[in-house]
Amino acid sequence: METAQGFRPHRVVVLALDGLLPFELGIPHRIFGRPRDAARRHLYEVVTCSVRPPGPVETDADFAIEVAHGPEILATADTVIIPASYELGPVFEEGVLTDELAAALAHIRPGTRLASICTGVYVLAAAGLLDGRPATTHWAEAEHLQRLFPRVKVDADVLFIDDGDILTSAGVAAGIDLCLHMVRRDHGTAVANEVARRTVVPPHRDGGQAQYIHRPVADPQLATTTAARAWALGRLHEPIQLRDMAEQEAMSVRTFTRRFREEAGISPGQWLTQQRVERARHLLESTDLSIDQVARDAGFGTAQSMRQHLQTALGVTPTAYRRTFRAGNGGTGIGEPEGHGGVGSLR
To answer: Which of 22, 191, 225, 270 is the most exposed place for a label (fewest CB within 10 A)?
Structure first.
C-alpha cells in the first residue's frame, strides 16, 4: 500500500498459540508470501508472534517452533490471523480468554482485519468479536462452538465466511481457500490465481461450497466429470446446457448431475455460474473491453445478466469492480470491501 512515506507492504501477523497445527501455521506464510506488484515488490509482509516474549511455542507434533516476536507486534498488523490450536484450555472449554491471551489481543488496533483458521475462531468468539455475526469452523466442532457461544451465528456448511473486517474458515485446507480469497479481495483474481498456480492448489473454491458432503467419496476408478468441466471451460462464452455436459461423459443427465455433486460439492449450474463470474472478473481487471463485451465473452449474454450475477456473488456492479482494481492503485493495492459481506463474497 502507498503511504505518505512511500510503499509499505500490508503486514499480516500470525498469532501462534501453544498446541498449534504446523500445517495451518504455514498457510498464511505460503499464500501471503508470494504476491508481488509490477515492480516485484512484496505486497504483504508476514510475521509470526506469540502471546509471550520471543521463544518456543509448542505444536501438536513432536517439535516446537521458535517465534521471534512477542505480542506487542500485533499493534503493527493490518491483518491478524489466528490458526488452529489443540490447547486452547478455558477458551475452548469455558469460552473465556486467559489473562495472557486477553493482554495479547489488547495490542490489536481498532480497524485491523481479523481472520481465523479452524478452531482459531474460538479466540475471536471468546473475545466477544463474533457476537451477532456469522462464523464457521471445522464441521466437527461447529455444534460445540454454537453451544459455547450462542450469540454467534455458526454455519457449519461452508468453507469460509467473509463478514467484512472479520473472516473465519473451516479446517485445514479451507485456510488456503480463505487466504487466497483475501488476496483476491485485496488485489484481484489475476494475483490470486498466480499464487494458487505456484502453490499448486485450485485458484478458487467458493466460500459457500459445502465443507463436508454426507455421501461416500466418488470411486476414482469410475467415470468422473473432469472432461466435461474442461470442455465447458473452453466454451464459457457459448450457451451450455446440462445435457451437453453430460454427453461429454456419455452419462444420462441424472447420473451426471449426481456424479458432479459428489465430486464438486455443488450442482453443474452453480459451478458454471462460478466459472463465468471468475472469467468476468479476470476480463474486468485485465482488459479494456466494454461491459457488454465482457458479458458476452464470459457467457452471461447481456450486461444486465452479468450485473445481476456479480451483484449476487460479489456485492458490486461490474463498473464498480473494475474501478476497485484500476483506480488509484493499478490493481495492486488493497481493495476496500463495500460493507459487510456474506459467505465467501467481496462486499
So the answer is: 22
Question: 153-154 and 134-135 as β-strands: parallel, antiparallel, unpaired?
Answer: parallel
**pTM of the predicted protein model:** 0.70
Count CB-CB contacts under 10 A for residue 205.
23
Distance CA 22, CA 13 (A): 16
**Most distant CA pair in the chain, distance:** 62
Q: Calculate the alpha carbon distances from 279 to 54, 306, 308 in Å.
A: 45, 11, 15
Contact yes or no for 94/72 (Cβ under 8 A): no
- 8 Å CB contact between 84 and 21: yes
Per-residue pLDDT of the chain (347 residues; tens, 9 = 90+): 655 567 899 999 999 999 999 999 999 999 999 999 889 999 999 999 999 999 999 999 999 999 999 999 999 999 999 999 988 999 999 999 999 999 999 999 999 999 999 999 999 999 999 999 999 999 899 999 999 999 999 998 888 999 999 999 998 889 999 999 999 889 888 888 888 888 777 665 555 444 443 333 444 445 588 889 899 999 999 999 999 999 999 999 999 999 888 777 789 999 999 899 989 988 998 899 999 999 999 999 999 999 999 988 878 899 988 887 765 444 433 333 333 333 332 22
φ and ψ at residue 95, rounded to 5 degrees: 80, 25
Phi, psi of 239 (to 5 degrees): -65, 130
Which residues is 64 bridged to in the sheet?
58
